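Hello again, I could really use a second opinion on something today. I've been puzzling over a protein and I'd love to understand its fold better. I'm sending you its amino acid sequence along with the backbone structure tokens. It would help a lot if you went through both lines with me. I've dropped the whole record in just underneath, so have a look.
***
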Amino acid sequence: MKGTKSPHIIFVAPRTPARGSAGIEQYVLHLSSFFSMKGYPTEIWGIGSHFSETKSGKVIWKSFPGWFPGNAFYFSLPLYHALRHSNADIIHANGFNNLTTIAALLAKKPHQKLVITLNSSPPSSFLTKVLRKPYEWLFRLLANRFDTIICVSQNERTIFSHMVNVPTEKFIIIPNGVDMEAFEKVKVKKKRNQILLIGRMVPNKGHMRVINALPILKKKHPDATLQLVGSGPLENVLKQRVNELNLEKNVTFHGTIPTSERSRVIQLLKESSLLVLLSDYEGNPLVLGEGLAARIPLIVSNQGVMHEYVARGDAMGVEHMDDPVEVADILSRVLTSPSSFLSKRIPESWEDVGNAVGKVYESLH
């Protein structure tokens, strides 16, 4: 802020980048780095099995003990109490379906500004499905405590503007960013007919749809391989299905790749022939922007925010995701001529995102 002391910012997320490398962790990692370089005192607070505090550059990462059944909701009384006693000028909560955002809402003091970046996803287990309705009710009840709601896509804005009764001027769309420099540094050779899927292994992410299409795809592309990055409760089920279809030589499970090894993810992206994501629903996944940065074709489900990618010509859309013949046909078409399906769009950089979020912070003071 011009002429004033730089505000103290606390980014609140389910997990710190030390404990995860999914979209929310990448978001807070890049934004906290951006603002710390601008001279803002910056911290990331998340939840883990015990209290820990580390430092990355000038950014302090704190993990508070909490409860997160099935890696969902993320409840922590110690984090809530710490927020209540914090002297932060800005609390920036991240994600919709987690209780760290509710903790930030409840802990906010009158002089503090509260910003949320909404990244939504459907329930991934029976427990999260049961808790979803009361959680939405609580979120609506407290939503007027937000000063600004950042949505990562038009689709997200439409969903949440109907969910909460807050003035439309509180909503702003700021897409996710990509670390373009990191992509430029990684040099790889393309691998023929390599398909990449990055995402948590839960039913709504669509891993099984791609696996079921592989036997059909192999009739035209016998050397096709599928690289899976991520882990989750469905992992053993997916491995069993791969064995049933005799695809052990075609499918590789890489597990979760930590933030400290981010270059491995970039290497997989740049060496692959295409990126596929046949989810039931997504907020605006970082991985699609990373696919654009890696200059590879995208194949997505033609619904929700991913329809925005299809409409812009950034991705091929699959209408009937549960039809393995249709999925295999589209995979085959793209593998046959990948360059014909490349988008020309350059995704936003994290500096672009940081500058946009910085303007939000300035407008609050």
